[in-house]
Design goal:
- By secondary structure, the protein is of the alpha+beta class.
- The protein has two domains: 1-112, Orthogonal Bundle (Multidrug-efflux Transporter Regulator, Chain: A, Domain 2); 120-273, Regulatory factor, effector binding domain (Multidrug-efflux Transporter 1 Regulator Bmrr, Chain A).
- Helix content is 36%, strand content 28%.
- It contains seven helices and twelve strands.
- The chain has helices spanning 9-15, 20-28, 51-62, 67-75, 77-108, 141-158, 219-232; strands spanning 6-8, 36-37, 44-47, 120-124, 127-137, 167-173, 179-187, 199-202, 205-213, 235-246, 256-266, 272-273.
- Strands 4, 5, 6, 7, 8, 9, 10, 11 and 12 form a nine-stranded antiparallel sheet that branches. Strands 1-3-2 form a three-stranded antiparallel sheet.
- A hairpin with a 6-residue loop joins strand 2 (36-37) and strand 3 (44-47).
- It is elongated.
- The relative contact order is 0.11.
- Mean pLDDT is 84; it is low at 268-278.
Length: 278
């Protein structure tokens, strides 16, 4: 083999435009080991054929890919294709989250606005709906609800029980914690059979209802309006909260969420008599 194809670590680092310390790190995590190590001097030698791998590793590290994923990608084959697809999804999720963060800053700067709804006192009718339970970290609540609805949609479709007018929602606890337990559900027509599906009874009875227009980043403001209305009515929130995710009236319209907060009458001790609320 031609000696000109072998390079000491400093020359190899120069060729692939990386610090020597980075190459030593790649060796330490077993991403790119020297092609040969002199047993006497300990000098590391790389082969020119390793340059493409060094460049690929550097590019993947630059976008935050873990050493484990990089090792899988370097091995090639279907596993590499799957690992690259996973990385793409990761970056897409990060972009989505960064975009949401920018929207938060724009809101605080007064550059964007949302349209809060007007709370209305309603009497929710009894209803039993197909549902799917979930457990989620608070930080992943929105993503968990989205995945849960997709799974429930697939279940309804597999049972041939997915009418075109299906509406989707979530049943959530009134008080959120770092770990949230709830249900996603489907509002289907009253004559839709539910054999073979898990169903739950939605809360019924007195409630305050409000429709949120805009991204879910502003949901807290709409919840505040609803709970303020409950407080001013001399009632107290009770039971669970329903979020219905309504289809926008037009394609360019902002998302809409109908929020229903159950209410009950508080006695002098501050406890709530929720009557028929479930």
């Amino acid at each position: 083999m031609n000696d000109t194809e072998w390079l000491l670590i400093a020359e190899f680092a120069r060729r692939c435009r990386l610090p020597v310390s980075t190459l030593r790190y790649y060796d330490r995590v077993q991403l790119l080991t020297p092609a040969a190590v002199d047993p006497v001097t300990g000098y590391r030698r790389y082969h020119l054929g390793q340059l493409p791998a060094a460049v690929t590793i550097a590019r993947l590290r630059a976008v935050g890919t873990t050493p484990e994923a990089i090792a899988c990608i370097l091995r090639g084959g279907q596993a590499a294709a799957s690992a690259l697809a996973d990385e793409r999804r990761r970056l897409t999720d990060e972009i989505t989250e960064r975009t949401r963060s920018l929207a938060h800053l724009d809101e605080l700067s007064g550059l964007t606005s949302f349209k809060p709804g007007v709370p209305q006192y309603v009497n929710l009718p009894p209803m039993r709906v197909p549902a799917l339970g979930f457990h989620a970290d608070f930080a992943a609540l929105t993503a968990t609800i989205i995945r849960g609805i997709a799974t429930l949609r697939a279940q309804l479709r597999s049972h041939q029980l997915l009418p075109p007018d299906t509406e989707w929602g979530a049943l959530l606890p009134l008080d959120l914690d770092e770990y949230v337990t709830g249900h996603v559900f489907a509002r289907t027509s009253t004559d839709t059979p539910t054999d073979g599906l898990t169903t739950i009874a939605l809360p019924h009875g007195p409630a305050f209802e409000i429709t949120h227009h805009g991204s879910d980043d502003h949901l807290a403001h709409t919840y505040d309006r609803a709970l303020t209305a409950v407080h001013l009515s001399a009632l107290r929130p009770a039971g669970a909260v329903i979020e219905d995710y309504l289809a926008p009236p037009r394609q360019d319209s902002p998302p809409r969420v109908r929020i229903c907060v159950q209410v009950g009458v508080a006695d002098d001790s501050g406890s709530v008599d929720d009557g028929d609320i479930v």
